[in-house]
Amino acid sequence: MENRLELRLIAATLMLSLLPASTVLAIEARVEGLKGDPAANIRHYLDGLDESQYSRSRLEGESRRRAAEAMRAYGYYEPKIEARLAEGEPPEYIELTIDPGPRVRIETLGFRLEGDAQEDPPFQEAIDDFPLAVGDPLVHAPYDSLRSRLANLSLERGYFEWRYTDRRMEVRPFDESARLYLTLDSGPRYRFGDVSISGSHIEPDRLRRLLPFTPGAPYLAGELATFNQRLGQTEWFRSVTVRPRLESSSLALEENTPGWAEAVASEGGSRYGSTKRVSAAGLGGVTALAARQEERPSVPIDVKVAPAERHRFEVGVGYATDVGPRLRFSWDQPWINRYGHGLDHDLYLSAPQQRFGGVYTLPLDNPLRDSYRFQYGLSHKDTDDTRSLEATLEGARRWEFENGWIQHLYVRTTYEDFTQGNDSEQVLLLYPGIRWSRTRTRNPTFPSWGDHQRLSLEVSDGLWGSDADFVRMTGETRWIRKIGTDNRVVTGLGLGAIETSDFSLIPPSLRFFAGGDNSVRGYGYESLSPRDDEGKLTGGQQLLTYSLEWQHRVTGDWWGAAFVDTGDAFEEWGPDDLKTGAGLGVRWISPVGPIRLDIAHPFDDEDNSWRLHFAIGPEF
Length: 620
What we know:
Number of strands: 25
Number of helices: 8
Strand order of the largest sheet: 10-11-12-13-14-15-16-17-18-19-20-21-22-23-24-25
Strand content: 35-45%
Structural class: alpha+beta
Largest sheet: 16 strands, antiparallel
């Protein structure tokens, strides 16, 4: 019995020890006689009032004092406030009956710029955007926001010697007037100085080609961020730091702890918005001041990088209804020499197809946008009516334009030993081509907005030793748009055409097939194409597919889908009819990527009433 009692006492002691030492009892404020932002500011300011620390009389007095202070942020300097606590201990609320009295109005706005900022438009725009005018009721938050905005602009745009020579808010409650003064002396605008690079295993000149500025240009913090981002996108480095070499007390933003004026602006719903400040560290990592010329001071830029791993390996396992289990192994070398050349290898294995290939990348003046690419590949494919062994070599010139479009101009050599239906050939093809593509997404894993376009044109001719003459064109567009927060529309269109004098010499890799997880659902993988007299697939000279899908969020990361797909591969353009499938599906945004499960009914297949489609991976 004693042991049980002792155990109970120990358990009770442990439970009590887990309770907080003290509980803050915030009192509810009920405001009468005042509405809108001023009333919200009072409630917010009283939220932190701990009633257990005050007697009833002191609590009433402290509430009146805080309410009066909160009202000054909106120009009420002579309010009459009555406070009444609810009965009971502790009181549940305090009722404040307020006669706000006269409201102070702005009599003078004296905002001035001195120094080089007088000629820099964003500073004057900040002043012009001040939301109050002479005669308007005084509100403190816009004045504080302007002060912070000018300070931020000074640091962002290279005015490292900025200071306020006048910063006053004169309030005369007896006259119901206020005078606001603010004078910024920006001093000279600094320019970009020399760029020093340390720790790089890549030729420094190749990195300097990524600079978005030139030494001597006016300083902009945003361009340092752009340079940092570009260096990271090369994948040459494990870490990148780009900083201006500065030291100065003027670089730190003025001390201004957020109080009631800012609190209601950000949380109370004020129309004037919240006040945001940028730390000096956030603008570039400030460390040591560079020697500067008197007339045009400059700031050196220090770049410190660390090499990325020379070899990267990745293994991926997946499953799709079209090909069954699949395995992918990649070996990437983001850099293999001091010029930043790269080499990637990729192995893909599935039941119907196996591929091995690689790309050697030779970056040019702009490593991110311009390069030569040399590719090799081996592929084996064995499906119902297709057997193919293919070897490919390709040399390409790649451009990426400012608008996001990517252009490839290439020459490809392909040797293919194939059987397609009753056609068996061995062909050597040499053909140039050009391809344009662009992909834009927001949240690439499961885009709320995005689109993808691709267009290619290829030409083969016996004049340069190719075994087949043809002109081949393909095009694809796919769009994703989110409607509200719980609905998505996914639609896509695919086109293809081959013009040739002898279709039997066109290998399966260039013919067109439709059907499958990413084509016309409800039909088997590449099961839609013309057939020969024995019913074997021959592949088509033309292709047309279209898909429309509506998705709706069911709960959390689970979405339902309804879709209709139509299309076919055919011999002559303008088929008499297209194959159509429709169905329902489920989408789950899993930790490893979107998982799609669809059940589709083919309207033009008498042998199958339903087909299941399953895939893992992003939509683009």
